[in-house]
Amino acid sequence: MSQKKQFSVKFKMFQHDEVIIFASSMAQSRFFLTSFFLLLSGWVAVGLGYNDSVSNWIHHFCNPITDDFFIHFSWLAEWLLIILAVLTGFYFHPKRGLVFGIGLGLQSLLVAAIKVWFNAPRPIEAKLFHIRTIEKLEIHHWQSFPSGHTAVAFFCMGLIAISMNNVTKSSMLGVVCAIMAAGIGYSRIYLGQHFLFDVCTGGTIALLFLQLSYQISKKLGYDV
Fold first, then answer.
1. Is 34 within a domain?
2. Confidence category of residue 92, pLDDT binned at 50, 70, 90
3. Do the domain assignments include residue 224?
């Protein structure tokens, strides 16, 4: 093969690899960027002093159908989402899945420690607005800050987005995963279990641990 043809083949291979890396980065960045702007909008509301009023409005913007939906949707972040995310991570890249699994474990320990340390009152104890009764739902009273469900949701949906993007090649996957994570955060306020501040803090902690796990996996050579 002539040098010209060899150069042409190598250049095409280089282009192909670059396209794969770019598509992968875009899918991951879409999750982080979408999550960032969703959480930022929440932090802006908190900063402007609307933490209580937004939480109150979300909690009372209701009907029996959405009550039932958000009860079950919120449950996703208890065990099902964790199992699905960890299995997905290990299936596509066992070593990278291990790094993210450790990251999720450390995040959970930190969130639990903060909850115990502050032992912040839930909305029903804070008595800043009336908490309505929702059938088949147990309202918690303490350890409101931060939202553990939201932290789990953002970390696990991020792990799914990172693990799946090389298969789907769709940058929209990251957007969908970020919206679902934010939806679980929304459900915690809707059900009267948390304030907006708790949810934003939980999501922010998750993004920090997710990004840290992602960067460590890249340095160890476990990512494209």
1. yes
2. confident
3. no
